[in-house]
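General statements about sequence and structure are easier to judge against a single worked case. No coordinates are needed to read the tokens, only the vocabulary itself. The sequence in question and its structure tokens are set out directly beneath this paragraph.
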Amino acid sequence: MLGQQANSQVQGTSYKIGNGMPAMSPTPGMVSPSSTSVPPLVPSGSPMTPTGAVITTTAPQFEQSYIENILRLNLGKFGTFYMTYEGNKEWNARIFQGIIEAAGRDHIIISDPKTGRRIMLLMVNFDYATFDEPLLYQYPGVVGNFPQAPSR
């Protein structure tokens, strides 16, 4: 019944089926729903015009200022990492020292330069870290925000 009538009556209320617009046939440049074409790959965050054309930009791409990104900028540096483990009866807080080997969203991998032993630390337990040397730090949108030698 719905396919044969444009309107339906339910307790005195009139409902229109569809949006009331005439059906359009695809014109050149339009993609019909049954088409198998795939849109072009577009870099994430690229601006587009109202017609869908991608605007190429040469703006520098910066990583966002998250702890893992700051640690990634400082791979190879020796640091002291302070961790807290709630509910652990053996050790509630621990201190780890080592060279930053890798950093991900949920973990840090450090290595002990004396033994070569590698330790994976979970970011959920991370409190803070200290370093005895300047860190590379690049805040999003700020060009060349690298540390200078401390004045003494």
Summary: Strands lie at 7-10, 13-16, 78-84, 93-103, 107-111, 118-122, 126-131.
